[in-house]
Amino acid sequence: MTSPSEQAHRTQGKDVGLTLCPSCKQLMPHAENHCSRCGSILALRDYSSLQKSWALLITAAILLIPANIYPITIFTSQGHTRHDTIFTGITHLIDLDILPIAVILFTASILVPILKICGLTIYLLAISFRLPISKKRLMVGFHVIEWIGRWSMLDLFVISITAALVNMGQLLDARPGPAATAFALVILLTQVAAKVLDTRLLWDRLESKDDAN
Amino acid sequence: MKLLTEEKCADTSVTLCRSCDLVIRKRALPSSVRALCPRCHTAIYDAPYCSLNGMLALCLTALIFFVPANLLPVIELHFLGSIRTTTIFEGAMAVANQGYWVVAIAVLTSAVIAPGLLLLSVLSQILIIKYRLEVPFFRDILKRLLKYHGLLSQLTMLEIYMISIFISVFQLRDYTDIHLEMGTFCFAMLFLVTLFLQREYHLEHMWSLLND
Ligand SMILES: [Zn+2]
Ligand SMILES: [Zn+2]
C-alpha cells in the first residue's frame, strides 16, 4: 500500500495532460502540437529515440576497437620513430615519470569512453528489457555520463597542439595516427547517443514497484 | 479535461522534470540554490537571478580576450636554436594538413567556433532584451538564439583546452625547452570570464523574458 502523499509524489506529466517543450522547457498541454512560445514540435514521448540511441552506441562501440589498436600519435625523436596507441602512449608517460598526466590521460582517453559505452548500454538495456535496476541509480549514472563525456576531447587537443609545435623532420616530429579519427568519432557518437535519448522512457517502462529505489 | 489542462498550464507553480516527467510543485528558492527532482535528482530550476548589465560586462570582456586568445601564440618551443610557436587555430590546421580533418573540425568547433558564437549570441540576446524586445523581427531572432544556446554551450570546451595546453607543456619538456606565451594568458582570462558568464546566465529566465 502506498500513502496518498507518495501517490501524489509519483504523478507524471502524461497523467495530467501536460508536457514540457523539449527546447524551451515551457509547460504545455499535450493536446497541442507546437509550443506556443518557441514553435518546437511537442512529443509526449519519443519512442524512436531508443532505436537511434542504440544505433549510435553500437557504432561507437565498434569504432572503439580501431581507436585503441591503431596508433594515435607517431612521434619521431633523433631519427627514431615511435607509434603510440592510446595505451602505449600512457605507459610511455609513466616511463617518463609524468605520473599525474598519465593518470589524467588514462581517465580521459580510456576510462571515460569505456565507462560511457558500458553505462549507456546498461541504461538502454534497462529500458529495452525492463531490467530491475534502481532507476534512481541509473539516472544519476546517466547525468555523470553526460557530464564527463566531453573530457575525452583532452587527448585530441593535446595531439593538435603537439603536432603544430613539433615538426622538425628527423630530429623531432609528432603527428596524429589513424586512431585519432576513430577516437574523435567515438566521442561524437556517444555524446549524441546520450543527447537524443528520451530519458522519460525509463520511468514509464520499468516496474513501478521499484519506484522507491 | 481541456479546461483543466489549460488551467494547469497557466499555473506557474507547477513544472515537470525533463528527465522523468514527474510533476513538481515549485517553491521559492533562496538565490544560488538549485531545486533537484526528488525522484531522479535532475536539476529542475534555480532562483532566477541574472543581472543583464553584469552579463553584458562579462560578455564584452570575454569578447575582448577572444581575439588575442586565438591569434597570439599559446606555446613557444626552443629546439636547437630554432623557435616555434603555435596558436589554437594553427594547432587545428596542423592536424587537418596531415589528413585528420575530423579531429581538426572537433578541435576548431569546441575551442574556437562554439565559444565565439556563444559569446556573440549572448551579446545579441542581451542587446535585444535591453533595447529591441518590442520589435517582432528581433523577438524572432532572440527566439532562434535561445533555441541554439544549449547546443552552443555544450560544444564549448574552453576548460578542457586550457588543461591540454598544460599537459602538452609537461609532455614536451623532456625533449625541448618550452614556454607558455601571452596567448595562454588571454586564453585563461577568456576561460575564466566565460565561466562566470555561464554561471550568471539562465536560459529559462531568458525564455521567460519573451513571455511578457
Ligand atoms: Zn518551446
Ligand atoms: Zn525527475
Automatic annotation (TrEMBL), chain A:
It comes from the Bacteria. Keywords: Cell inner membrane, Cell membrane, Membrane, Transmembrane, Transmembrane helix. The keyword RNA-binding does not apply. One of its GO terms (cellular component) is plasma membrane. It is found in: Cell inner membrane. The chain crosses the membrane at residues 54-78, 98-126, 147-166, 178-197. This is PqiA family protein. It comes from Shewanella violacea (strain JCM 10179 / CIP 106290 / LMG 19151 / DSS12).
